[in-house]
Amino acid sequence: MKDKIHTVQESLKDRYKLLAVLGEGGMSVVYKAQDLKLDSLVAIKVLHHDPEGLGVARLQREAQTAARLTSINVGRVFNFGQIYDEHKDGDATAYMVMELLDGKGLDKLIKERGSLEYKDAISIFKQICNGLSAAHLQNIIHRDLKPSNIVLLEAKKGWLVKILDFGIAQIETDQKLTRTGAVLGSPSYMSPEQIDGLAVDARSDIYSFGCLMFETLTGRVPFEGKTSLETLAMHKNALPEELALSSEKIPPLLVELILQCLEKEPDKRPENMAQIQLLLDQITNEEIDHVGNDAKIDANDSDRNTQPVKPSKSVSMWYFVVPVIFFAVLVCIYFALQISNTSKETALNKSLPPAEISFEQNKLPARLGTKRSKFKATGDPLVGLQVTGGEDIEDQDLQALTFEKVETLKIHSRELTGEGLKYLKNLNIKTLELKNTNIAPENLKYLSDLPVLTDLILHSPYLNDAALEEISRIKSLVNLTLDAGTFTRTGFSSLLKLPNLSSITLINLGVTDKDLEPISQIKSLTVVRIIDCVNTGADIGVIIARLPKLDTVFINRPLSKASYTAFARTKMRAFNLKNRLITQEEFQNICSVKTLWRIGFIHARVSDDNYDELLKLPKLRRMEISRTDHISDSLIATLARSHVQSLDISFSGLRQDQLEKLIADKSLDEIYCSELKQIGDKQLEEFRKRFEARHHKPLRLIKNAM
Prior knowledge:
This protein is an alpha/beta fold. The protein is built from 19 helices and 28 strands.
């Protein structure tokens, strides 16, 4: 070992100094080292003796693959090279210089704790989705996803996830090292198609991700035989134990997601990681700033949780002394800043962009904040920033957005024509919201230069078919919202070019059913929201139901029986209606869709005689009755004897006596209860305690809407 360290050190001495051995496996050893040129700590992976050169080729592939990925959730690679041992006839091996990660493997965390609480695990799952999405968008399949390849770094809020070991990753356009027929991977996490040596795509990683989620939440892998061959056979033929996931602590939707990821046939799994992220966003109890969410469709709703927090008042007997001391401190700070600014003025003038960004947290780069700021940013620069621009943002101001961790950008300005979007080129922006703008369709061409853009929300009166043609070039796009504009069948046909489009939201458009026919051919589309599109007909559901992967429909106009008959032939799980009276006939049509898992009545009213029909929906587990004062006693009585596990009554007029009747519903796991008009927090907490005492199970009270 000492001889090997000496050989490696001699070969790398001009650039790196080895400090310690971090770990050693069958194929390689990893050193902690100092980069002498950059004065930073790194990790260096060095292969063992490799006479056939296969390990060198694979390590080079790992370096090339990881270097292509810029996601914060993928371990970075800085360098790759070869080492020659003059004492062994010039034997060559290879080394790779990586980001030094002082963290803990997910496998070790699971071993320490037995399993993770779902609230802790979801944050980890979402970051893994983020890293794998970045890989899949570049046609890179990991092929060996497992807890030991996930490193967790301590962050101010939970864990920062890093995905490692792309050593057997497959680049779909070049399969020389991972050809069909070669079985590579870890038996406990391999997909059935990977076991058979078939060509794999992103859905194979999704299967492995299902195994990882299963193990994280239960402490054991979904399939474990006495031998590796028996384990591989179980992946192909056995069903996972649902009992292992049946704990009351794991939300039913999360259980369903994991089982869907573990489907034997790739076509039955979620199509991409972005779809999984959407479901994880629904499950989490945190506020998710995502315009696509049902709870945030209304522009009037978007700011309900953004009220500034008022500072607490304190009283001091030193009411005279403190102001004097405070004034003296300010004077000292002023002169200190004057001295500092004099020495740094030249450097700042060179680095500041035309418009400035002010950051609300001290940990963000101070040089980007000035009093004249047009942008405000929140978030953690290690994870991603949300940047918001005011009503006076002009195109040239976008030159300020050069900070690499801008993940979400929101601009509401009529001064914006879109010409300035060219300044965003190659930024890692995932969510772009451009509302109340005057963006010209031709300027949307610049959005195709955003490599990881997944969510696009547009509002401009000038949007048209030409705009959709430009949007069709954003191959990473997953969620699209169009508010205002003039579109025809030709424009929507352009969207067929988007391979990952999963969700489309149409608001205030003058489109007809004929205009929307092309969207029924978008094979990846799972979520359709049509809001205030007055020219659509009652048979629009017939068109939507043609989508092979239809999961969720949100609509606020009456639909025909033909629409509901078409829905009943799909596997649609979620249906939301808004802003209208639901007739008895339509309610019966809704209840004919037996696959519904979630139903939402948002600012809607249903006749009291109809609620019993809900009990005939065998899979119904989640219900939303929000933004209404009309919650009847009949509905409460129905819920009390239903199988609903999750109930959203936010912004409603639910009474105290009605809340008490819900205590009989032993199926309830969670209640979303934001801004109840007649019930306070104290009453809710007392209800929770009585419920838990009666049913001997926890009840979650969640203050954010679904």
